[in-house]
UniProtKB/TrEMBL annotation, chain A:
Belongs to the ABC transporter superfamily. Ycf16 family. This is Cysteine desulfurase. PROSITE patterns: ABC_TRANSPORTER_2. The keyword Nucleotide-binding applies. Keywords: ATP-binding, Nucleotide-binding. The lineage of its organism: Bacteria, Pseudomonadati, Bacteroidota, Cytophagia, Cytophagales. It comes from Anditalea andensis. The keyword Ligase does not apply. One of its GO terms (cellular component) is cytoplasm. GO terms for molecular function: ATP binding; ATP hydrolysis activity. InterPro entries: AAA+_ATPase, ABC_transporter-like_ATP-bd, FeS-cluster_ATPase_SufC, P-loop_NTPase. NCBIfam families: PRK09580.1 (NF007134), sufC (TIGR01978). PANTHER family: ABC TRANSPORTER I FAMILY MEMBER 6, CHLOROPLASTIC. Residues 2-246 form the ABC transporter domain.
TrEMBL record, chain B:
One of its GO terms (biological process) is iron-sulfur cluster assembly. Belongs to the iron-sulfur cluster assembly SufBD family. InterPro entries: Fe-S_cluster_assembly_SufBD, SUF_FeS_clus_asmbl_SufBD_core, SUF_FeS_clus_asmbl_SufBD_sf, SUF_FeS_clus_asmbl_SufD, SufBD_N. Residues 158-390 form the SUF system FeS cluster assembly SufBD core domain. Pfam families: SUFBD_core, SufBD_N. This is Fe-S cluster assembly protein SufD. Residues 15-153 form the SUF system FeS cluster assembly SufBD N-terminal domain.
Length: 253, 419
């Protein structure tokens, strides 16, 4: 589904990603871990098309298409979804109005008719249950005055509404208490199918108790330096990142 | 003229007047002249210079030939309203549809018969010029306990083929417990340059509720100065709303004098500009009595090489305890050539008050743009959604739905977007 080859990216001239290689198939969950500043969020941003990052080398093929050639909105319309680490507050735009605009633009790109108000509302009601989000919250301005947990739940709610093929969760667990973490993970697990894939970017192993990955990759200095199964995450939880840093820095010196 | 005037432009204005009907106004104009940019209040708005360069005929414009189509063409869809037609500033009763009761309208020939004065003219020579120039002022009186069942739409038609100066003068008085909403729209009938120098004075009686909403969407040659003064009495509410979209250069002076305890003064403004349009909003709210609120929100979206100026003065006098005064001015610049000058000025002598002010000027929020795009919303649509959301909280203060929808349509048109 997704094939990343030798991906290099930099911001304002300083390189952050230094040759990422990653293959993701439908039905898989990949966790990306790593110490602070290793490039995890940059990878998520580059895949979603954030303009500040400049891709200097490499390619990303998503379902046969050159992802890097597409605008952020076209990536979303093709089925890529980024759950933001810091969801943006947008005063004056209600979640409902925003989502209806988004869904109908995606549908129009795919040659589908727009959803009418009735169908849209019933879809919304169905998906709201999944992340236990209150309708009142959705009639308010998008994310404005939401708590951290509400913002993250709203991200997963949007994901449920848009039904992406590839979901990238950028530190969705950061700052969540255990109840919110359960709700969010439950939502993500519920949306998982054999046809879609998930990339979970996280700093904490705890999330992976709830969203169980098929593969775990450790990012360090802009490269994947170690890959394994969920046992690797447990090992990291126990030993920290120092041993990996030593391994990598030792061989490159 | 024996006295030497401070500037040639004042001389041009005075020479074209049929008679001098107000010595005080004349002396003020002689003393001060029309403001140059050396005057702090006109620092960013060289309107006197603009008049000098664009206006060639300083006579008051003679009334235009108005057709029924002009009137129906200016109507707003779905709006149930009385119609008050001004033809180059002169009341046109034939085309007007006014309330049959609870509404008295009289024409005023000069300031000796003026129903009242809200402010002495020493503050601004454009107001003095208006007082010298208006041909027939209009005085509207809404009696005690009268609630107008529909808003009054003021259609301000301008045609400047013979004479390029238009000087409308309106007095509105709402007596105790009166309620009325005025909606004003200026319509340029042709593309000749003109200088519209209007003055509106409002007396808001105790416990009455008056609102005056304006749309400035004129020809690109229009130069306008508007002096708007309201005296607000005890327990009354007054709201001014101005939507400025098109013109050459527009200066709005809005002054609210909160003269009675427990009254509320609201000033809302939205300027959405492109091309070279220059809009300057100077506002002034004077709290002299306790327990009064003033709310002020002005927002601007500026494209191309347009220019916006905002100056908001709030005075809270020593007796005006328990005042709540809020002021906000926010601007979005869409182009590198667009400019905004914004300045809040608060002077507070009372010690038990809540006052706040803030101004921001920035670009469209890139992070918000990316967020919307990352959900599949195209760039143009995302931009429109954000800009409209920005303007929305000003528009939300309009209490007449059909007028509000009309403003929304005009905004979409100006921003070149639609939903």
């Amino acid at each position: 589904m997704l094939s990343i080859k030798n991906l290099h990216a930099s911001i304002e001239g300083s390189p952050i990603l230094n040759g990422i290689n990653l293959e993701i198939k439908a039905g898989e969950v990949h966790a990306i871990m790593g110490p602070n500043g290793s490039g995890k969020s940059t990878l998520a941003s580059v895949l979603a098309g954030r303009e500040e990052y400049e891709v200097t080398q490499g390619e990303v093929i998503f379902q046969g298409k050159d992802l890097l050639e597409l605008s952020p909105e076209d990536r979303a319309r093709e089925g890529v979804f980024l759950a933001f680490q810091y969801p943006v507050e947008i005063p004056g735009v209600s979640s409902t109005n925003f989502l209806r605009t988004a869904i109908n633009q995606v549908r129009s790109y795919r040659g589908q008719d727009p959803l009418d108000a009735v169908k849209f509302l019933s879809l919304m009601k169905e998906k709201m249950k999944l992340v236990e989000i209150d309708q009142k919250l959705l009639s308010r301005s998008l994310n404005e005055g939401f708590s951290g947990g509400e913002k993250k739940r709203n991200e997963i709610f949007q994901m449920a509404m848009l039904e992406p093929t590839l979901s990238i969760l950028d530190e969705t667990d950061s700052g969540l208490d255990i109840d919110a973490l359960r709700v969010v993970s439950n939502g993500v697990n519920h949306l998982k199918s054999k046809d879609n894939a998930t990339i979970v970017v996280t700093h904490y192993q705890r999330l992976l108790d709830y969203i169980v990955p098929d593969y775990v990759h450790v990012l360090y200095k802009g490269r994947i330096v170690k890959s394994g199964t969920k046992d690797l995450a447990l090992e990291l939880e126990e030993k920290g990142y120092d041993w990996i840093k030593e391994e990598v820095d030792g061989t490159t010196v | 003229m024996t006295t030497i005037l401070k500037d040639n432009i004042s001389e041009n204005f005075l020479a074209a007047l049929p008679s001098i009907k107000d010595d005080k106004a004349l002396n003020l104009l002689k003393d001060q002249g029309l403001p140059s940019t050396k005057n702090e209040e006109y620092k960013y708005t060289a309107i006197t210079k603009k008049i000098a360069s664009d206006i060639t005929d300083f006579h008051q414009a003679s009334p235009a030939l108005l057709s029924d189509q002009d009137i129906s063409g200016a109507a707003i869809d779905g709006l149930e309203a009385y119609i008050l037609v001004l033809n180059n500033g002169i009341l046109d009763l034939k085309h007007s549809t006014l309330p049959v009761s609870g509404f008295a309208i009289t024409e005023i020939a000069d300031s000796t018969t003026a129903p009242f004065h809200t402010d002495d003219i020493t503050n601004d020579s454009f107001m003095a010029l208006n007082r010298l120039s208006y041909l027939k002022g209009i005085s509207i009186h809404i009696p005690r306990n009268t609630v107008l069942d529909k808003p009054v739409m003021v259609l301000n038609f301008i045609q400047s083929t013979a004479g390029q100066i238009i000087s409308p003068k309106i007095w509105i008085e709402g007596a105790e417990n009166a309620e009325a909403i005025f909606l004003e729209k200026t319509i340029s009938l042709d593309k000749n340059p003109y200088f519209l120098n209007g003055s509106i004075e409002v007396k808001v009686g105790s416990n009455s509720h008056l609102h005056y909403y304006r749309i400035q969407n004129q020809s690109k040659q229009a130069i306008e100065v508007n002096s708007f003064h309201a005296d607000v009495s005890k327990d009354a509410t007054f709201t001014s709303f101005v939507l400025s979209l098109q013109g050459n250069m527009i200066r709005n002076n809005v002054t609210l004098n909160l003269n009675g305890s427990g009254c509320v003064g609201n000033m809302y403004g939205l300027y959405i500009l492109n091309g070279k349009t220059h809009v300057d909003n100077h506002t002034n709210v004077d709290h002299t009595q306790p327990h009064c609120d003033s709310n002020e929100l002005y927002k601007g979206i500026l494209g191309d090489s347009s220019r916006g100026v905002f100056n908001g003065k709030i005075f809270v006098r020593q007796d005006a305890q328990k005042t709540n005064a809020f002021q906000q001015n926010n601007n979005i610049l869409l182009s590198e050539d667009a400019t905004v000058n914004t300045k809040p000025q608060l002077e507070i002598w009372a010690d038990d008050v809540k006052c706040s002010h803030g101004c921001t000027t920035g670009q469209l929020d890139e992070e918000a743009m990316f967020y919307l795009q990352a959900r599949g919303i195209g760039k143009e649509q995302a931009r429109a959604l954000l800009l409209f959301a920005f303007a929305g909280d000003v528009i939300d203060h309009i209490k007449v739905d059909a007028f509000k929808d009309y403003c929304i349509d005009l905004i979409h048109e100006t921003l070149g977007t639609n939903f």
